[in-house]
Structure prediction request, 132 residues.
Amino acid sequence: MTGIDVNAIPTTEELQAMFIEGALEGIAVLERKYAAACAGDLAWPEVILEMRGIAHDIKGQGGSFGYPLITEVGDSLSTLLKHERMQSEAGLKLLAAHITALATILDKAIQGDGGNLGGSYTQRLSALVGEL
Prediction:
């Protein structure tokens, strides 16, 4: 009978570190795609699909690892990426704001909901996406 090697099971801290590493890699991809979009050098349908996948992963995992603010920004980003005006100048500015928010949350290790500032920031992002 074979047993489970408990030393091979990642700890919560290791899982959280893997989430952060993966999210930072995803944000780096978003930043590159944003730069390409501003330069007018990309095929939108494929890029938006890839960005939506990254946003989906980030929003789906953020809360599980103590970053519900990441989940909220990721959800707003997902909504933005489905918007018909995503490719407009205003849409690109909102994309940049979302990417900056995600990077800042992880860079500053803002766990939890971010308090009043986090709540007002995510509400503003969502409102801007709604106004787009």
